[in-house]
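pinging the channel bc i need a second pair of eyes. not urgent but kinda urgent?? the chain im working w is below, pasted from the shared doc
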Amino acid sequence: MKRHFYTIGSLIILLIAAFVFVLLPAMVSGARGKKLPPFGKYNGKYIKYEQGSDFANAVAQYGDMLKNQGKQIDNSSYFYIFSYAFNSTVTKMAYTDAVNKSGWKVPDRAIDRTMLPYFTDADGKYSPKLFKQASEESKTSLQNEIKSSLLASRYYEDNFGSYDGVGKDKLFGLKVSSKEIPFLQGIGTKQRTFDLVAFDMSKYPETESAAYGTAHPELFVKYDASVISCSDESEAKKVLGRLNKKEITFKDAVSEYSKKSYSGDDGKLNNDYGYQLKMIISDEKALAAVKNLKKGETSSIIKTSIGYSIFQSDGDPVQPDFTSSAMIQTVYGYLKSNEMGHIEDYYTNIAKDFSSAAAQTNFDDACKKLNIVKTAVPAFPLNYGSVSVAGAIPSSIKELSGAATDENFLKTAFSLKQDEISEPLVLGQNVLVLKMTGETAGGTDDATALETFPAEIKGYDQSAAQAALFASPKLVNNVAEVFFKNFLKNE
């Protein structure tokens, strides 16, 4: 059975409008009937969602692709469809501008060659009959679309290469230096193995938290207070005046005036520990005045981290009990958020003791003596960011998570001499001690490098080009603003 013209490649072009302007508005009905503003612009040219535009066509193609993959399309999906379509439209505009500036024109023969597959019969042969059956309007539309695509692809192929070639040589693309692949092969030729011990800072002893709290009890006193927060001082003065004249109760003033920056609707102070009050009130005298309020007393106007506030004591402060597990967790939470260096120092000192013990005997004996588990780290190269052309830090060693982008770790690890033990290193939630156990030869063999590196290089080139394009001052991206204002239903 012969394929009809409108069921071949031209279907993508000629039926795109049906998808874009019927199916899409039905699914994101908030946009139905609206004249949409531009989604952005590039080099002074607006990018509009209108029939026949590159942007609308790209939206249709991405949406159709998801449907064909059997994926559920919802409002979230459509946002990503519009975002990808916008990016592809910008890319096409930029590439087309660059080619037009060069003066290159699309040859008519190239258009004809590209059109041929759209008019083939069931045997895959060109069919003059199918060509004659197609309307002149549809053929002109197809020609224009092909010309537009070939124009943009000329820039892409000249820079990133094409899939067409003669033998191993691509027809298009930038030339590769004869020294480029050997240079990349040289990355990671020296790989190192290590012994490692890790001290997990998430296991900070409760006794240490209790000791810290005992040494700093004022931070964990809990204050029973209410607060009125105002955006400016003049309004706070007005409120305080009414309170002093007993024209309004504190509770009613909360409802009428407070921005509730530090409270709920009832006005009760949320950040009620001493250390939290200290974050709200930077002036020490003002902080002391609030802390020393007697039950029922109201403060003067206090400058806070957000605006101006008036505090009222609702009860006596509660002194901390550092034998309580809840209070110990409060102290630990404070340390993690505000004094992580204190926890790091604790484990760094333990790690130093381990290093000293290892230096006096050896790494394994120190592990046994201190009951610490040693991890043997397989060989890996100096490879910041784990770029794909070289080996990476083994992902199986969870204690080394994040090490690939930690300059201090990499510098320390690859500065060690044979059997040298490092100073303690803080990495994520661990304090580490390393011992360099050996150096081996690595790298990529010639056959693998010649097969994989060109594609790797092309990928990095494309990523860099995209990053530069989307950071261009010529680009204005309003996709999120236009989409969320116009396409989502008002519930």
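so The two ends are 49 Å apart (CA to CA). and Residues 1-29 have pLDDT under 50 and may be disordered. — does that match what u expected or am i reading it wrong
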